[in-house]
Amino acid sequence: MTTTTASAQPGERTVGKSSPGTARGPRRRPGRIRRIGLPYLLLLPALLLELLVHLVPMVIGIVMSFKELTQFYIRDWTTAPWTGLDNFTMSVDFDAPVGEALLHSFLVTCAFTILSVGLCWLIGTAAAICMQDAFRGRGLLRAIFLVPYALPVYAAVITWAFMFQHDNGLVNHVLHDQLGLTDKPSFWLIGDNSFVALLVVSVWKGWPFAFLIVMAGLQNIPKELYEAAALDGAGVWQQIRRITLPSLRPVNQVLVLVLFLWTFNDFNTPFVLFGKAAPEAADLISIHIYQSSFVTWNFGTGSAMSVLLLLFLLLVTGVYLFVTSRATRTPRAPRKHEERRTADV
């Protein structure tokens, strides 16, 4: 039986089965393209909403920071005269009243943020470690610990404001009348004690979030590590220092950053606790910017302060992520007993 093969004419394309060794060119499947584009299509409404809610107002605020926008141009802010960098120069001139007040608020905010974030992380981590082992009533205690985080901010802060009242507040009643720790009832919402009151409220409503995140991170640590450490004679503190804290490093990296950003930008807590005019000891930068914008009606200066705050937070966030990520990637140097064990092998 003979097989005839037709020769291809010029301009004609020969169609035939390719041999197994012949390489095929990449083909794009329409179904694969649709699967790749589907996530972006689902994210499109969220991206548009993010653009309208955050990005557009942010761009408008940056434009306002370059204008002399006062109460005389409220009806049409686009007609306000262009001032260039004058608002920024006035804000960072620490010898002038505006810059000096902004610097004071910045330092108060830094001290408040460091103390609040540190205490929230410490209390939340300690509570999560204590709740790690199973015991009777653990579920109820976990639910009680999360109550401050579940309460609305306004309801919680208003309750604390009543408790901090001078004459009939619960705090003075316990500290002065019941325990006798103070000579006379203290003023908590004015004066230097206002910083302590603000710190107490911030820590009270912030540490349950740290407790929740750390508790979730502890679930990923194998129990075999603790059992092996206990067999080797390691105590509770050594297990926490050698196993728990190193294992929680990725969780703490995100947790500390989120707590820092939330606390540094916190506006609801001081505004509800003190009102429009916060005491000098508790004058956070968020309240200071609000006063510069909506009390003195100088929106240009307030916008410039907001832009400076945004740049500061972006800088701190970038440096923090760079340092923590580099520390995570850096290999740990072998210790002496490990080197000795390797040499014996």
Automatic annotation (TrEMBL):
<keyword id="KW-0813">Transport</keyword>
<feature type="transmembrane region" description="Helical">
    <location>
        <begin position="303"/>
        <end position="323"/>
    </location>
</feature>
<dbReference type="InterPro" id="IPR000515">
    <property type="entry name" value="MetI-like"/>
</dbReference>
<dbReference type="Pfam" id="PF00528">
    <property type="entry name" value="BPD_transp_1"/>
</dbReference>
<dbReference type="InterPro" id="IPR051393">
    <property type="entry name" value="ABC_transporter_permease"/>
</dbReference>
<feature type="transmembrane region" description="Helical">
    <location>
        <begin position="37"/>
        <end position="66"/>
    </location>
</feature>
<feature type="transmembrane region" description="Helical">
    <location>
        <begin position="195"/>
        <end position="218"/>
    </location>
</feature>
<keyword id="KW-1003">Cell membrane</keyword>
<protein>
    <submittedName>
        <fullName>Carbohydrate ABC transporter permease</fullName>
    </submittedName>
</protein>
<feature type="transmembrane region" description="Helical">
    <location>
        <begin position="247"/>
        <end position="264"/>
    </location>
</feature>
<feature type="region of interest" description="Disordered">
    <location>
        <begin position="1"/>
        <end position="30"/>
    </location>
</feature>
<dbReference type="GO" id="GO:0055085">
    <property type="term" value="P:transmembrane transport"/>
</dbReference>
<feature type="domain" description="ABC transmembrane type-1">
    <location>
        <begin position="106"/>
        <end position="320"/>
    </location>
</feature>
<dbReference type="GO" id="GO:0005886">
    <property type="term" value="C:plasma membrane"/>
</dbReference>
<feature type="transmembrane region" description="Helical">
    <location>
        <begin position="143"/>
        <end position="163"/>
    </location>
</feature>
<keyword id="KW-1133">Transmembrane helix</keyword>
<keyword id="KW-0812">Transmembrane</keyword>
<dbReference type="InterPro" id="IPR035906">
    <property type="entry name" value="MetI-like_sf"/>
</dbReference>
<feature type="transmembrane region" description="Helical">
    <location>
        <begin position="106"/>
        <end position="131"/>
    </location>
</feature>
<keyword id="KW-0472">Membrane</keyword>
<comment type="similarity">
    <text>Belongs to the binding-protein-dependent transport system permease family.</text>
</comment>
